[in-house]
Amino acid sequence: xxxxxWNTDKAVQLLAPESDLEKxxxxxxxxxxxxxxxxxxxxxxxxxxxxxxxxxxxNIDKLQIxxxxxxxxxxxxxxHDTFKYKEHRGVPRDWTRHHAVLARHFLEKYTDxxxxxxxxxxxDEAYYVWRYQRNPLRKPEAKKRLEGIYQNFNGSIQxxxxxxxxxTCTGDKNQxxxxxxxxxxxxIKPVSL
Length: 193
Prior knowledge:
The chain is an all-alpha fold. It has one domain (8-184). The chain contains 11 helices and no strands. The protein has helices at residues 8-15, 20-25, 29-35, 49-62, 67-79, 99-107, 114-121, 125-133, 139-152, 157-168, 176-184. The protein is globular. The two termini are 23 Å apart. The relative contact order is 0.12.
C-alpha cells in the first residue's frame, strides 16, 4: 500500500464513511492522527491503522447481518485501534492508557450506548483470555477475564464474536485465539468470512 501522509481526504476515500457519526470521527484531529500512525509489524503488515480498519470493514461487508448490526460493527471498527499511538508502552503496563480504553473515552463523546462502549473497550479481551489461559500462572486471571466477557456481553456475545472475528481475520494475525474462541465460547454461532 502506498505511503500516505496524514491526509483526511485520503482517509475519507479509503474508509468510505457511511453515517454522520463516521464522518464526524474523520473531522477530529486526534482521531485522524491515530489513523495515520503505524508501520508494518507482526500482526499488522499493513502498517497504518487506517489500512487495518479498511480490512476490518471489508470483513464486516462479508457477514450476513442486518443493517443495524452492520452499523454497530462499523462504528467499533472505526475507533477500536485508532488510539494505539497514545497507548502506554512502559513496564509495568498502565491499563488505563491501553488503546482500547482511550478509544472508549473518545467514543463516549459521541454516544452513551453501553454496548458499543464496552465492545470498543474490551475488543481484545478474548485474545488476552486465550493467551493467559495457556500460562499456568495466569489461568486464574484468564478465568476472571472470561467471566467478564460473559457478564459484559450477556445477550450480545454473538456481536462480540463477530467483531473479534472481523478484527482477527486481518493482516497476518495468529488465528489460534479465534479458533479457541469458536470452539469454547458458549452462546455463539460461528460464521465464515
